[in-house]
Write a sequence for this structure.
């Protein structure tokens, strides 16, 4: 229902925009959540955006801008005068504005800096200095700190001073005179406590934290594991440098998800969050061509095996006919096993130590699969090849048994390879996700051909 | 570093457990976060667990139990007497205990109910009644409500009453006498306000909410989009029924991620969160065999095409040799395109409306890929087949050109099919993720063979 209301509101605002009814638009926009205002502004012509901006308070503008995508922010930078942009920038969420600052080129940065106050300037330069994918690069610097010898009353005063007006604050961090973190209290603790209690009496001094240079994925995992609303980020001196919030953890998890899927399909992960539509044809091409052409080159090995059995196939053409079936089935079974193992490792359900148990389990699963798929293959061959020319000394049934047996063996070996390869890559210190579908398909092609022609040579030729 | 401390602590506790030093263990465990205590208990023998339980307060026990996995909880149910279990259960997080209640069989439920107070009993039965994957099934009922005509001082008193001691509370919900939701205030608003202000003066009356029967994925998306710490869940009368917290949204996103990956590889998604280790061989087998054998059956179509060109291959054996290359390359290119499109749809970067633009873009990407892969194929054929027997009227170069051209065409058609199929499935109301790797591989095998032999018939035979 609410969705309907939201869509109606969007439609009304669009209608007003077409009629250029700016005042009415402003009245509606002012009541909408910032993220929706940002969505609507994205679709308006530049002159309307310019006319609408003065309607909002600086604070609202900062909040709306924090919800815009990078492209619109860059347009805004070109569109409005530096002074206004500086004001908006100052009120933006500290992590988004640091990202924006990094997107600007050196000249643009220098144009913007004079319009920022000292605190914002320092904060932006500080946050932009952390390497990508670290806690430092995704933390925000909006937090409230108190001392342990304060009373609750005094602490509340301090929080009122520190708390940026629109920002969510739940944990209040207790630091000593050197900003070293001592613990935290929650707003709930503060509300539950008597006004003259000392902070040190309600402090939680056992706490989980992240290092500024810690990998963002590990930070997200801590937030998830300990169900935290935000996690403190400390520097090498154990001083509080910033916080990473739970909604940032969600973004990290989504980004890692995309990266996983892409690695799975042999797509080179984009350096930054990439938008399908905004990336050009050449960009997409570059990300895909590397794997595809590597696999084509590795395919030379399969080609050599196939050529080695060229004469066998000439003599017994039915062998050639079922070569693709062996390759496809092996690729599918191996990819499935790899998916299961990679995902179970990512969710920490299995570790390298259990490698033997995992492979043994996969072998048993594969055995069952090989029975079913072997029988299907046998039926298929009898159905398809009843007219195929076969040298007199063999019966079709005999050949069908040989080919199905090869296929069954291929299912078992592909499944075990598919499960084992991610474990091996992990053991060698790599990311198991690279050992996924395209790589496995190519590798089990090779083993499949060896099994297939090996079996054929033994039984038939 | 903290990781080291944590691992050390775990190691120490383990050592103490082996020496059966229960008192020392208890002293350490009492200082650890509940999630870690749950991890450690999982590995202890039952008699030690029984001896350790009395060390913790009921409240702590509830908190620790909320962090246990279902298996350990079921063991605990069998292990301790009903009265103690009832106490632990009462103090558990309302969503986890509702899940646990559903895991129990009817007899076990009846054994437990007498040991619960009326409020807990009603709550559990209420929460267990919602269908899986709805907001109702993942919400918790621990929240604080106030009225809009209260002063801040009175509101704080009410929150102190309502707030379950260990639970995180950030939003306080403002309801009328019929529990209809009017808006919310945050703990921060309360701390910032003067004690005699009225709640109605600081209320946020524009709010985002979820319906009890809303799909959990949509709930998670709202939490993510609006950066909420938790979202109110309302029933058909707009009454506050529960809240879904951000950490639940993370769990939902992870679960959906696993489901996506599995669908990608043609693995039947598990009804519930499945653990790789705990699922038996037969369970794994069942989830994989459906797709693998369906694909094997559909493979009959490829088989029929291949058989139709049996004579052509007998005459020109080189055609048989490169059949697998065509199939593999097409499968890889198609799967990549499908991955990109499915992910871009999931992230709402593209919609069905743009289908033509997407396919056109993919066609251009594919054109570039086809050039590179065609050239590699040409080189491969010259390198591998210089000894292959070819009827006198053709040169190897001519045949290599024909096969590479077929491969290039196959790359283009597979990419467009790979991108188009998820769009089509979505258009027909299905989940685009099912149109992924295995399905695409099988389909582009068919088109690939048609292109390959079509080209061969035209140019060579």
């Amino acid at each position: 229902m609410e969705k309907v209301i939201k869509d109606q509101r969007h439609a009304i605002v669009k209608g007003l925009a077409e009629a250029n009814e700016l005042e009415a638009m402003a009245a509606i926009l002012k009541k909408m959540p910032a993220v929706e205002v940002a969505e609507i502004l994205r679709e308006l012509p530049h002159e309307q955006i310019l006319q609408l901006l003065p309607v909002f308070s600086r604070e609202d503008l900062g909040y709306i801008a924090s919800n815009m995508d990078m492209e619109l922010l860059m347009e805004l930078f070109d569109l409005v005068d530096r002074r206004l942009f500086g004001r908006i920038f100052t009120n933006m969420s500290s992590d988004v504005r640091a990202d924006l600052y990094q997107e600007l080129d050196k000249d643009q940065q220098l144009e913007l800096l004079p319009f920022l106050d000292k605190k914002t300037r320092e904060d932006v330069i500080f946050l932009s200095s952390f390497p990508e994918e670290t806690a430092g690069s995704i933390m925000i610097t909006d937090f409230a700190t108190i001392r342990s010898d304060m009373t609750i009353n005094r602490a509340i005063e301090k929080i009122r001073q520190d708390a940026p007006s629109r920002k969510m604050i739940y944990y209040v961090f207790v630091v000593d005179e050197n900003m070293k973190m001592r613990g935290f209290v929650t707003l709930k603790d503060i509300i539950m406590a008597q006004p003259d209690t000392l902070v040190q009496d309600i402090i939680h001094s056992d706490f989980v934290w992240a290092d500024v240079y810690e990998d963002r994925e590990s930070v997200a995992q801590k937030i998830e594991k300990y169900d935290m609303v935000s996690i403190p980020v400390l520097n090498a001196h154990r001083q509080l440098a910033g916080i990473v919030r739970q909604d940032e953890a969600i973004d990290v998890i989504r980004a890692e998800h995309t990266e996983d899927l892409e690695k799975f399909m042999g797509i080179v992960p984009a350096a930054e969050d990439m938008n399908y539509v905004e990336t050009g044809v050449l960009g997409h091409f570059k990300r895909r061509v590397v794997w595809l052409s590597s696999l084509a080159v590795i395919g030379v090995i399969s080609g050599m095996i196939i050529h080695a059995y060229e004469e066998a196939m000439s003599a017994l053409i039915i062998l050639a006919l079922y070569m693709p079936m062996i390759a496809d089935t092996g690729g599918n079974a191996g990819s499935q096993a790899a998916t299961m193992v990679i995902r179970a490792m990512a969710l920490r359900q299995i570790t390298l130590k259990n490698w033997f148990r995992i492979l043994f389990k996969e072998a048993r699963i594969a055995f069952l699969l090989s029975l079913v798929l072997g029988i299907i293959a046998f039926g298929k061959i009898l159905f398809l090849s009843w007219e195929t020319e076969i040298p007199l000394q063999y019966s079709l049934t005999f050949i069908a048994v040989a080919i199905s047996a090869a296929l069954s063996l291929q299912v078992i070996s592909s499944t075990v390879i598919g499960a084992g390869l991610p474990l091996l890559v992990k053991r060698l210190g790599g990311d198991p996700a690279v050992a996924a579908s395209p790589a496995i398909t190519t590798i089990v092609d090779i083993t499949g051909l060896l099994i297939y022609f090996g079996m054929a040579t033994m039984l038939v030729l």
